[in-house]
């Protein structure tokens, strides 16, 4: 199905997020716009400090927007909302946090942590239904019933992240912001958590914004990828399109950093290092331009012409 036939679930328009005031003001997100379609996984990729988490936290209304708007199913969810709309957003848009230890209340049992959303929104008829919901979601994420009476410090990082996943899934959300949910986990556990995310997406028709800095993981889980650098979008493309035709030098640098399993080849490869000084924007100002095939690249008019030649070389 082509993107123009797909239903836009979340829309970000000209988003700015600024921290601090006056001389100390720091613009973490600069004029960012993109859409997320129903049922897809859109990955937001960039190095630490590029503004990925800031965008995720703006969607779930932790970070206020300094400019621009965020729309969910055509309804504006940034800025001031009525209590009803605010609760609606909290229920439908959940977040899985990067650090599973810091995002869980150490003094609460796993049962209470997972139940908290159910209590707040009263998503159960009686105690029996609440218990049934919790026991089901705990099984779904690969934990045991006896884990419910324990506390977060008694679990490994992978198990804690499963608790975080259960806590968001039990709310029956439609959209999940997954903020580097596997970066703190061992490699073998990462695959299990990614498989769980994919399983829930199929079973529950979920839409994901997946935040990561590792492109090799993103390739496995994403439908489309947004590459961000210092708060600005550099490139947007479907996953395989981006890996076959990385056009922006920053995207190329991220792809060149992916480790190659063969140690001999890995030793010989040359890393591509990106520097903003590669661009001359003194005369022509850069823009995010759609080249076709759902592929958007940030560059000056001269750079865009060059990117088009590279992308469509050999095609009439």
Structural class: alpha/beta
Look at the structure and give the CATH class: Alpha Beta
Note the total helix count: 11
Task: Give the second-level CATH assignment, the architecture.
Answer: 3-Layer(aba) Sandwich
**Strand-residue proportion:** 15-25%
N/C terminus separation? 25 Å
Which residues sit in consecutive blocks of at least 5 with pLDDT less than 50?
A: none
Mean pLDDT: 91
The CATH superfamily is known as: P-loop containing nucleotide triphosphate hydrolases
Helix content: 25-40%
Tell me what the structure shows.
- There is one protein chain.
- The protein is an alpha/beta fold and 316 residues long.
- It has one domain: P-loop containing nucleotide triphosphate hydrolases (Rossmann fold), CATH 3.40.50.300.
- Helices cover 36% and strands 24% of the residues.
- The chain has eleven helices and twelve strands.
- The chain has helices spanning 52-59, 83-92, 110-121, 127-140, 157-169, 187-204, 215-221, 239-244, 249-256, 263-268, 301-311; strands spanning 8-19, 26-37, 41-45, 67-72, 75-76, 93-96, 175-179, 207-212, 224-229, 232-238, 287-292, 295-299.
- It has an eight-stranded mixed β-sheet, sandwiched between helices. Strands 2-1-4-5 form a four-stranded antiparallel β-sheet, covered by helices on one side.
- Strand 9 and strand 10 form a beta hairpin.
- Helix 5 runs parallel beside helix 6 (187-204).
- The longest helix is centred in the middle third of the chain and has 18 residues, at 187-204.
- The radius of gyration is 21 Å and the shape is globular.
- The chain starts with 7 loop residues before the first strand and ends in a 5-residue tail after the last helix.
- The relative contact order is 0.13.
- The model has no long low-confidence stretch (mean pLDDT 91).
């Amino acid at each position: 199905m082509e993107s123009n036939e797909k239903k836009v679930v979340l829309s970000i328009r000209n988003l700015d997020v600024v921290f601090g005031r006056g001389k100390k003001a720091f613009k973490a997100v600069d004029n960012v716009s993109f859409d997320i379609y129903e049922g897809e996984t859109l990955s937001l990729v960039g190095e630490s400090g590029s503004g990925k988490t800031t965008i995720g936290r703006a969607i779930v209304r932790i970070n206020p927007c300094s400019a621009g708007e965020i729309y969910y199913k055509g309804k504006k969810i940034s800025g001031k909302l009525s209590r009803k709309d605010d609760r609606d957003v909290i229920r439908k848009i959940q977040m899985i946090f990067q650090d599973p230890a810091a995002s869980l209340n150490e003094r609460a049992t796993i049962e209470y942590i997972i139940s908290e959303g159910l209590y707040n929104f009263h998503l159960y008829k009686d105690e029996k239904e609440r218990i049934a919901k919790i026991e089901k979601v705990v099984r779904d994420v690969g934990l045991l019933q006896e884990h419910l009476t324990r506390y977060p410090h008694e679990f490994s990082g992978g198990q804690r992240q499963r608790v975080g996943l259960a806590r968001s899934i039990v709310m029956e959300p439609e959209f999940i912001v997954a903020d580097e949910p596997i970066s703190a986990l061992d490699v073998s556990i990462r695959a299990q958590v990614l498989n769980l995310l994919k399983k829930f997406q199929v079973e529950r028709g979920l839409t994901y914004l997946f935040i990561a800095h590792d492109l090799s993981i993103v390739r496995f889980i994403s439908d489309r990828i947004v590459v961000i650098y210092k708060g600005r979008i550099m490139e947007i493309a479907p996953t395989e399109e981006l890996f076959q035709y990385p056009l922006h030098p920053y995207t190329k640098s991220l792809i060149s950093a992916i480790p190659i399993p063969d140690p001999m080849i890995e030793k010989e490869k040359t890393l591509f290092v990106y520097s903003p000084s590669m661009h001359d924007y003194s005369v022509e100002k850069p823009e995010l331009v759609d080249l076709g095939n759902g592929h958007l690249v940030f560059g000056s008019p001269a750079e865009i012409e060059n990117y088009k030649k590279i992308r469509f070389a050999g095609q009439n």
